């Protein structure tokens, strides 16, 4: 039997595969490309533990391969192998060595563990209250007096203290590139701090099965320079203190009428509206539609025509809009911006 | 029927199997039922993988996908691998300890039928309004009425009924192993498979009550508005997680320990050496069983238990690596210096070692809570637990089936097909699950029915799906092998592998009374000891005489059927049906209590005639 040769062939195949796969991975998404101190600490622990484990694996595989080659039964082999009961020295050896390796892992586990569970007061960190809903995310900045949804906006290089909960079922809040993950439990609050060291867009995910569209419960994290962040907050505050502005074009005005009638019950714009669905004050500034699709008029229209198609099981009803109503609404929604213009 | 009938009532075919209390036939029932559920769970897995073959495709919808993952996980754990383990335990443990029977044959049959009807109940949900879709963990509040359909009621009642069967099955094995050992079979002479079955049964005894309690509470929440888990009414969602994992974590060890036992037997037999470090193996098994109860919260690191709890549970979890490592090195040293042969059974056992090592390694990595905040609920975890349950347990079960098939059925499985079976399954397995480690680290959460195009997750998912085809081919080859073996007219010898333990001392398949005379055990590897002493077989510990056997009974079937019927009554809130079902069950219990059934005897002159027929 030449099984071991085949085994090696496979092994090298997997090694190759591993290399290729690690090579890719999207910066905005991958836990292997940390962009902040939390993810970096976690990545260090991953590297340490996988290094130790790969070391162990190499030892096991070395003995394994040697044994399989050396002690295969050969044709015509005579006699019965020596029946060995055991060997106390060896058995103690492979009890003690793993124990020592575990201690090496245990020390940073404990220190990092406690570091990640620190809680930062508002003097040291931006406070963000996260509420997870089927299947969207609500973000409130209680100290800044603004609220948004789907796109989380953060200042670069600053600690952010999250307080998280859920309104319906359990979800989990995960931004792999910034650090992982904490559950949002209905009826309870959890804490998590993160920090982004580079500006840009990061991808966030819901990691706990929460119903049909769990897979689509994505959000984006927009990390801005502090000054830009301050401007954003000021703009948001300005807009959210007011009534919705009257639309500019006639088509948008028509859209606004429909919106006020059919949508404000659930969605807030500026200072008005309900909290059942995402706050749409800065909708036009968002990176994605529904957290998943590119922000284009076609995708907005598609969502309005049949929300269940894009995100099955979500709580927004089909409003049975006509083509021209959809057009007007899209036109209006694209005016919902707090920044100068995209 | 006279009080001491001297003949087994003449039963045959289906009726025989519906009424049997013979542990070897119950083993076959478990194997068939578990095998069918394994195919169902495998089909579900294949559909899951097909849906994820390319980004953003629509093969099954989001809801169906959630049903598929829920049913796949639930089916595989509770209805496929558990029963196949019970099949091997039933077929082999009494033989290994030199017993004529198990301690409670009637209870043994009842255990099977409860499992079977529970599993059938659960699976009928597919046709009766939708399967459960809240994940095999059924976390609340997702699993409450407001957020999920009737499927979860099937989950609750199906698992409750099946779980009762498992619990009493476990108790039966505990008592059997404690009480029914042949003279000289001390605890420290028991084969490793018996040892691991013993410890597994102990874990079942303590773990299953936790899920039973959890399921009762969930049932009250769902059926009667109990609000245990409903935060809007003061309930607490995290309690469910604790109850589930206090059961769920030991469950993982309930599954893997028997596989360890099988690997120990197979590796030692095919190296022609005794197991290296037997006593440390026993100790390690017991320690793993014990630690298995201490670490459930490592499934809940992200739940928000706090730094202290997470750290303690993390460190406790890491400790399990020590006894597990002992086992792996002991297997390697068992082969060291041996004469290793590679029939399919040993290929699976040898393939198990590196595969399970990888699963164990990622397990230690998961035990580091700060890092687990990244791994948790991602594809990394999916890769990890499949390395353990498929690469560990399923490889172990294949090894055990190839090894003991001749003993159970009196036919040898074909080696050529067996080798193809191994290689397709082995390569398919690694192709499927190895890339998933990276998918998880690259940001793919688990239980997602699709993933978006621009996220670099395409290739890993594609490879993974291709691998699933490999495993499918492997499984089909096994089925072909079973058919080929059944058709072949060649009978398996009593001891085809030059075995070491007692089951190889009697014919294949064993007669219904197992041992004509109870054997006298004179050391570890009882049969090997006799072989080395130049004896042709075991020395008997008793003279030949009449053998007492328990009578077959239809009551276990009916008793389970009653609960099955009552289950539907609960699901559809029809309490007349509940009462009818429960009356049937209670009536059977009453009958069993008052009816005097002392069994029958097989006379001396009839011995050596009866064999189990498959
Ligand atoms: C035929 C080979 C198998 C394949 C291709 C396969 C594939 C999968 C996939 C793709 C998932 C869903 C992962 C996710 O998105 O969360 C899954 C989940 C799962 N599998 Fe398997 N699997 C296989 C065999 C098994 C076996 C033999 C077991 C257990 C003995 C098992 C236990 C589980 C469990 C417990 C889950 C989690 C279900 C849940 O999330 O509720 N699988 N499997
Ligand atoms: Cu969610």
Automatic annotation (TrEMBL), chain A:
Give a yes or no for keyword Ligase in this entry. no
Reaction catalysed? 4 Fe(II)-[cytochrome c] + O2 + 8 H(+)(in) = 4 Fe(III)-[cytochrome c] + 2 H2O + 4 H(+)(out)
Protein's cellular compartments: Cell membrane; Membrane
Please list the residue ranges annotated as the Cytochrome oxidase subunit II copper A binding domain.
123-235
Name a Pfam family for this protein. Answer: Cytochrom_C
Gene Ontology MF, one = cytochrome-c oxidase activity
Membrane topology type: Multi-pass membrane protein
**Could you mention a single GO BP entry for this protein?**
ATP synthesis coupled electron transport
Domain Cytochrome oxidase subunit II transmembrane region profile, chain residue ranges per copy? 23-120
| Known EC number | 7.1.1.9
Q: Start and end of every Cytochrome c domain?
A: 250-337
Q: Which UniProt keywords apply?
A: Copper, Electron transport, Heme, Iron, Membrane, Metal-binding, Oxidoreductase, Respiratory chain, Translocase, Transmembrane, Transmembrane helix, Transport
Cofactor section = Cu cation
> What family is reported?
Belongs to the cytochrome c oxidase subunit 2 family.
The protein depicted here goes by the name: Cytochrome c oxidase subunit 2
Q: Which organism is it from?
A: Brevibacillus brevis
Tell me what gene encodes this: coxB
């Amino acid at each position: 039997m030449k099984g071991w040769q085949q085994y090696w062939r496979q092994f090298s195949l997997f090694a190759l595969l591993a290399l290729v796969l690690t090579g890719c991975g999207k910066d905005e998404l991958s836990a292997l490309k940390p962009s902040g101190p939390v993810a970096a600490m976690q990545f260090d622990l991953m590297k340490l533990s996988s290094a130790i484990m790969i070391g162990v694996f190499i030892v096991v595989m070395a003995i394994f391969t040697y044994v399989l080659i050396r002690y295969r039964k050969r044709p015509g082999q005579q006699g019965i192998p020596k029946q060995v009961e055991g060997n106390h020295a060896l058995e103690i050896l492979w009890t003690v060595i793993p124990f020592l390796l575990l201690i090496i892992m245990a020390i940073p586990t404990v220190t990092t563990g406690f570091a990640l569970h620190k809680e930062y007061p508002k003097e040291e960190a931006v406070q963000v209250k996260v509420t997870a809903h089927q299947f969207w995310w609500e973000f409130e900045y209680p100290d800044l007096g603004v609220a948004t949804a789907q796109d989380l906006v953060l200042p670069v290089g600053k600690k952010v203290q999250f307080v998280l909960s859920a309104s319906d079922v359990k979800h989990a809040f995960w931004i792999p590139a910034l650090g992982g993950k904490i559950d949002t439990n209905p009826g309870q609050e959890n804490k998590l701090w993160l920090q982004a060291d580079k500006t840009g867009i990061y991808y966030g995910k819901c990691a706990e099965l929460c119903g049909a569209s769990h897979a689509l419960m994505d959000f984006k994290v927009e990390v801005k320079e502090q000054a830009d962040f301050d401007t954003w907050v000021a703009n948001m505050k300005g807009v959210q203190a007011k009534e919705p502005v009257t639309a500019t074009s006639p088509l948008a005005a028509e859209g606004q009428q429909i919106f006020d009638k059919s949508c404000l019950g659930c969605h807030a714009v500026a200072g008005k509206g309900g909290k059942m669905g995402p706050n749409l004050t800065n909708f036009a500034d968002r990176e994605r539609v529904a957290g998943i699709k590119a922000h284009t008029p076609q995708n907005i229209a598609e969502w309005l025509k049949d929300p269940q198609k894009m995100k099955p099981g979500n709580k927004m009803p089909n409003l049975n809009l006509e083509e021209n109503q959809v057009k007007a609404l899209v036109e209006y929604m694209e005016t919902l911006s707090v920044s100068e213009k995209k | 029927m006279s009080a001491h009938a001297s003949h087994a009532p003449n039963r045959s075919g289906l009726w025989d199997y519906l009424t049997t209390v013979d542990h070897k036939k119950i083993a076959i029932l478990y194997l068939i039922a578990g095998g069918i559920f394994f195919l169902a769970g495998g089909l579900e897995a294949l559909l899951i993988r097909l849906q994820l073959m390319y980004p953003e495709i629509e093969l099954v919808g989001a809801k169906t996908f959630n049903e598929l993952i829920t049913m796949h996980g639930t089916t595989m754990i509770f209805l496929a691998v558990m029963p196949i383990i019970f099949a091997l335990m039933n077929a082999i443990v009494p033989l290994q300890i030199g017993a004529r029977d198990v301690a409670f044959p009637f209870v043994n049959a009842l255990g099977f039928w409860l499992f079977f009807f529970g599993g059938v109940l659960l699976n009928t949900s597919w046709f009766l309004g939708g399967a459960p879709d809240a994940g095999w963990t059924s976390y609340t509040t997702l699993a409450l009425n407001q957020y999920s359909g009737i499927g979860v009621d099937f989950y609750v009642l199906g698992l409750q009924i099946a779980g009762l069967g498992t619990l009493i099955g476990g108790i039966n094995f505990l008592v059997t192993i404690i009480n029914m050992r042949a003279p000289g079979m001390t605890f420290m002479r028991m084969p490793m498979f018996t040892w691991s079955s013993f410890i597994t049964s102990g874990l079942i005894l303590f773990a299953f009550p936790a899920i039973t309690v959890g399921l009762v509470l969930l049932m009250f929440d769902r059926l009667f508005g109990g609000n245990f888990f409903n935060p809007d009414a003061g309930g607490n969602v995290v309690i469910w997680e604790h109850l589930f994992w206090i059961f769920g974590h030991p469950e993982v060890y309930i599954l893997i320990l028997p596989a360890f036992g099988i690997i120990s037997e197979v590796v030692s037999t095919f190296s022609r050496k005794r197991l290296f470090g037997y006593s440390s193996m026993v100790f390690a098994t017991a320690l793993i069983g014990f630690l298995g109860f201490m670490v459930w919260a490592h499934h809940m690191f992200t739940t928000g238990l706090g730094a202290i709890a997470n750290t303690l549970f993390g460190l406790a979890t890491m400790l399990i690596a020590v006894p597990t490592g002992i086992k792996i090195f002991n297997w390697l040293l068992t082969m060291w210096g041996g004469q290793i042969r590679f029939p399919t059974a040993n290929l699976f056992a040898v393939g198990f070692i590196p595969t399970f090592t990888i699963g164990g390694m990622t397990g230690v990595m998961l035990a580091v809570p700060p890092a687990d905040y990244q791994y948790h609920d991602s594809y990394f975890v999916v890769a990890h637990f499949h390395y353990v349950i498929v690469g560990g347990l399923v490889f172990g079960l294949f090894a055990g089936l190839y090894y003991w098939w001749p003993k159970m059925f009196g036919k040898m499985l074909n080696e050529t097909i067996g080798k193809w079976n191994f290689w397709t399954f082995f390569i398919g397995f690694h192709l499927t699950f190895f890339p998933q480690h990276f998918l998880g680290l690259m940001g793919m959460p688990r239980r997602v029915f699709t993933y978006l195009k621009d996220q670099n997750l395409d290739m890993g998912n594609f490879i993974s799906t291709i691998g699933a085809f490999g495993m499918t081919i492997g499984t089909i080859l096994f089925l072909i092998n079973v058919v080929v073996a059944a058709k072949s007219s060649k009978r398996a010898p009593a001891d085809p592998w030059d075995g070491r333990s007692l089951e190889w001392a009697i014919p294949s398949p064993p007669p219904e009374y197992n041992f004509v005379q109870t054997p006298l055990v004179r050391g570890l590897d009882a049969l090997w000891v006799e072989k080395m002493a130049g004896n042709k077989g075991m020395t008997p510990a008793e003279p030949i005489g009449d053998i007492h056997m328990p009578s077959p009974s239809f009551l276990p079937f009916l008793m389970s059927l009653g609960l099955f019927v009552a289950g539907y009554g609960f699901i559809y809130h029809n309490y007349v049906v509940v009462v009818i079902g429960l009356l049937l069950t209670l009536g059977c219990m009453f009958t069993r209590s008052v009816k005097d059934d002392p069994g029958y005897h097989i006379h001396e002159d009839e011995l050596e005639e009866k064999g189990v027929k498959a």
